[in-house]
């Protein structure tokens, strides 16, 4: 199984990997860390097609707020259940958006809602 994690401009290769990468059946989750600056359509299409086998979490600061609002609105319009805030667990079907508030983009991977936010998220897998 594969978990894609992207920070900042890493949204671009993540989006294209989901859309064109050929490993769709192996991807079990996507974690975006202040990384949704575009390609919302690619992420939405993947989420809508992969919900039964994968999770999607986007944690963001003010820096990528608008992209997260756009994707969340698109998913809701399409009838995809969306969680706002930290999910209890990361399992297939979870689609969550975490507003970390006024956190520095430069420090997001190291200190967002907690120190080592990626470790916090990965520890929730399988719960």
Query: Structural class of the helix and strand makeup?
Result: alpha/beta
Largest sheet: 5 strands, parallel
Give the DSSP E fraction (strand runs of 2 or more residues).
15-25%
| Secondary-structure element pattern, one letter each | EHEHEHEEH
Helix content: 25-40%
- Number of domains as seen in the coordinates: 1
Provide tags for this entry.
5 strands; 4 helices; five-stranded parallel beta sheet; alpha/beta; 23% strand; 127 residues; globular; single chain
Describe this structure in words.
The chain has 127 residues and is an alpha/beta fold. It has one domain. Helix content is 31%, strand content 23%. The chain has 4 helices and 5 strands. It has a 5-stranded parallel sheet, covered by helices on one side. β1, α1 and β2 form a beta-alpha-beta unit. α1 crosses α2 and α2 packs across α3.
